[in-house]
Specification:
By secondary structure, the chain is of the alpha+beta class. The chain has helices spanning about 70-80, 105-120, 125-135, 140-145, 180-190, 220-225, 225-235, 260-265, and strands at about 5-20, 25-45, 50-55, 85-95, 150-155, 155-160, 170-175, 245, 255, 275-280.
Length: about 280
């Protein structure tokens, strides 16, 4: 029996601008995606057929049927090849909170694509996996490679960035027990159905970084509906955080710190929430 363990990392949005709504209902984005070391584990065990199981501590239902992105990614890869040396049972050890804006489901799907490409010796390129990943979700292409990337379009247009400025940073993640509908958050933005020339730029990540130039378009509308999230962001600003903001459409809030002592001290102010001290993930 072959058993293989794969790590499925989370991400945060270091700044997020929503430029316009497209005719297909999706939105044009401009965001920096940062992979962080908060992670799920996917355990692949050789099997006569595909099965999916999971360990998960929260009380929120975690579907294990064909609606789960791991199942969808498995079936998508299975359609790429006629014969495989083995099917796999996948066991998910879930750590990344559900509905938190950290991309856990998309990461699980991308990890499944990468793992099966390796286990079945398909030799598919990263670019090919990114392209087929878009069939399942806009964030999945990012997780095929991970690291630090500028995401444009619906998130599928990716440009790797110099990660030197991130190498000494710590991200404190605060995940309140609030679950925000991404579709409702986009509706609340009420972006026009018009092409918009993208003049959006964040600050350069060259040192010293001007953190005041980062923002998230969802923050204003989320603050109105969920004032508790606004309070968390404001309280983080009162610590030694270099920057505090919302990841994606939430509900996770993160603070950026340049030393571990400051991050741990700030964490003590949020003990009534689920918190994680995380570091950027580097692949080179």
């Amino acid at each position: 029996m072959l058993i293989n363990n794969y790590t499925s990392y989370a991400k945060i949005n270091l700044g997020l601008r929503v430029l316009n709504k497209m005719e297909n209902g999706y939105h044009n984005l401009y965001s920096l995606f940062v992979e962080v070391d908060l992670a799920d584990s996917l355990i692949f065990t050789s099997s006569s057929d595909f099965k999916l199981s999971a360990d998960y501590a929260e009380n929120i239902p975690l579907p294990l049927d064909t609606t789960n992105l791991i199942s969808q990614a498995y079936m998508l890869m299975r359609s790429e090849v006629d014969l495989v040396p083995s099917e796999y049972a996948i066991h998910l050890k879930k750590v990344i909170p559900l509905g938190s804006g950290l991309g856990g489901g998309s990461s699980n799907a991308a990890t499944t694509l990468n793992a099966l490409n390796e286990l079945w010796k398909l030799n598919l390129s990263q670019k090919y996996l990114e392209n087929i990943g878009t069939k399942l979700g806009a964030d999945i292409p990012f997780f095929i490679k991970g690291g630090l990337q500028l995401a444009e379009g619906t998130g599928e247009k990716l440009t790797p960035q110099n990660d030197h400025a991130l190498r000494e940073l710590i991200f404190l993640l605060i995940a309140p027990p609030i679950h925000i509908s991404t579709s409702e958050a986009y509706c609340a933005l009420n972006k026009p159905l018009l092409p918009v020339e993208n003049n959006s730029k964040f600050a350069s990540l060259s040192k010293p970084v001007n953190w005041q130039l980062f923002d998230n378009d969802f923050e204003k509308v989320i603050r109105k509906t969920y004032p508790e999230i606004g309070d968390i962001i404001d309280n983080l600003h009162n610590t030694e955080a270099l920057y505090a903001g919302l990841s994606g459409s939430g509900s996770t809030v993160f603070g950026v710190f340049n030393n571990l002592q400051s991050a741990n001290s700030a964490r003590d102010d949020f003990l009534h929430y689920q918190t994680f001290l995380t570091f950027p993930v580097f692949h080179s």
